[in-house]
């Protein structure tokens, strides 16, 4: 099999490539070089991935202006460096347009003395897969490996990431695949489906 069989026949840049580039540039200028969760949602939106309704509200702004009256939301504290907001009480469920400002005020009161609370991300509550180790959460990451070049990380997400990191042998648990795999290939698609459905 030749390398060309793994390459896509034609690549078309997503329409929001300039916006994505701006988001990545902004993240690269931060000390952490990481995207905020709401910025990841923005990237997905720009490439055409359908998402539940979401709105990022910086501290000091009116959350009610950004939310729909007929929906319930999960409120997530936006704190640089805080990976698992659940551990610090940075998640609230069943938030409505009418209760959003109270939730933001409560998060500010509880979290600001210890954490740098920049804002709150409100995401529409949806039903999702709750079976399996990751409870429906996935990890997707891109990085530049010194030996292999551009790589994608894909697997179970949420707190499962830390659990697996603790039980897997160091440097023995990674599978490196070329980033430019042809996803139309039935074998590659099948392998990805197995990964997704067993997560």
UniProtKB/TrEMBL annotation:
<dbReference type="Pfam" id="PF13549">
    <property type="entry name" value="ATP-grasp_5"/>
</dbReference>
<protein>
    <submittedName>
        <fullName>Uncharacterized protein</fullName>
    </submittedName>
</protein>
<dbReference type="GO" id="GO:0016874">
    <property type="term" value="F:ligase activity"/>
</dbReference>
<keyword id="KW-0436">Ligase</keyword>
<dbReference type="InterPro" id="IPR051538">
    <property type="entry name" value="Acyl-CoA_Synth/Transferase"/>
</dbReference>
<keyword id="KW-0547">Nucleotide-binding</keyword>
<keyword id="KW-0067">ATP-binding</keyword>
<dbReference type="GO" id="GO:0005524">
    <property type="term" value="F:ATP binding"/>
</dbReference>
<dbReference type="InterPro" id="IPR013815">
    <property type="entry name" value="ATP_grasp_subdomain_1"/>
</dbReference>
């Amino acid at each position: 099999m030749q390398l060309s069989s793994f390459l896509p026949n034609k690549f078309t840049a997503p329409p929001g490539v300039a916006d994505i580039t701006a988001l990545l540039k902004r993240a690269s200028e931060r000390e952490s070089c990481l995207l905020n969760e709401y910025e990841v949602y923005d990237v997905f939106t720009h490439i055409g991935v359908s998402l539940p309704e979401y709105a990022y509200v910086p501290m000091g702004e009116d959350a009610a202006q950004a939310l729909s009256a007929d929906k319930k939301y999960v409120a997530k504290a936006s704190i640089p460096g805080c990976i698992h907001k659940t551990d610090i009480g940075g998640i609230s469920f069943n938030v409505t347009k009418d209760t959003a400002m109270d939730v933001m005020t409560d998060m500010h009161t509880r979290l600001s003395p210890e954490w740098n609370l920049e804002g709150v991300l409100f995401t529409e509550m949806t039903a999702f897969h709750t079976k399996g180790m990751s409870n429906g959460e996935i990890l997707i990451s891109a990085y530049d490996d010194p030996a292999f070049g551009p790589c994608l990380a894909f697997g179970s997400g949420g707190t499962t990431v830390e659990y697996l990191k603790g039980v897997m042998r160091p440097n023995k648990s990674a599978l490196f695949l070329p980033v430019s795999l042809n996803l139309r290939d039935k074998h590659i698609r099948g392998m990805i489906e197995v990964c997704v459905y067993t997560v």
